[in-house]
Amino acid sequence: MTDGAVKRTFIRGLAALLPTVLTVIVFVKVYEFIANNIGGPINFFIAWIWARHIDSTVEAVKDDMHEFVGTLLALAIIFIVAIFVGLFLASLVGRKAWGYLERRLFSFPVVRLVYPSVKQITDFIFGEPRVAFKRVCLVEYPRKGVFTVCFVTGKAFDSLCERTGKEMVSIFIPSSPAPFTGYTIQVYREDIIELDISVNAAMRYTISGGVIVPVMEGGAPEDIAALEKRMREYQLGQAREDQHQKE
Which helix (H) or strand (E) holds 170? Predict the structure, then answer.
């Protein structure tokens, strides 16, 4: 193998391993935190109660106990608390109370620097998806007379809507041939033209560089099959090239 092939192979393997390794590290650290900070006190409390019952010492009882008992109970407690908090936040009173608590947290300078970033990460991982490519539209971008396929992702900033006095939306303009990279801009709702095509059809149009036109916009169904065939041939060629480099 050449130096370039070794480098590409190493980077490919590293890219495949890193997500798994980082996920394991995160779970291990979370487990250690729960075991040390929640499971430990629970173990001590159980040992203290049992020691009084059998007329022994806490240390002796703890030596006979497995530390996993406290950790398991800690996980069960966290699960139950999360269920109750989720039920509480599902109510109007719960949402208002939580909103008030968050506003109070933002009043502390240090918390204000850390909490929003952590909340964005947790909302992205655990939250219900609120932003999605639900509607396909056209917008004049990057200049008048040039129309670009885009996806409406949500509402624009409140401050921008208040300043302009008009209803505005956020849109995502995908790049070709990689539609998950692109630009996010905010435009007047009246300036977008909604299209009666699916998100998948718009994605195929973008990936193909405009070759595969959606059927609803005058495209031919056989073009989609032809694109899929070319994609399979391309993937097969890439696999053969990788195999040749390894040899």
Answer: strand 168-174
Give the residue extent of every domain in the chain: 3-126, 135-233
Q: Which of the two residues, 151 and 242, has the higher pLDDT score?
A: 151
**Reading across the β-sheet that carries 147-155, which strands appear in turn?**
182-188, 168-174, 147-155, 135-140, 192-195
From the centroid of its chain, how far is CA 106? 24
Is residue 215 over pLDDT 70?
A: no
Residue with tokens 């959606």: 214
Nearest to 211 by CA among 176, 166, 174, 175: 176
Q: What percent of the chain has pLDDT over 90?
A: 13
- Reported as a single tens digit per residue, the pLDDT across 118-147 is 776 676 566 655 546 778 999 999 888 899
Strand 168-174 relative to strand 182-188, pairing: antiparallel
8 A C-beta contact, residue 131 and residue 153 = yes
**Assigned token pair, 1:** 């193998």
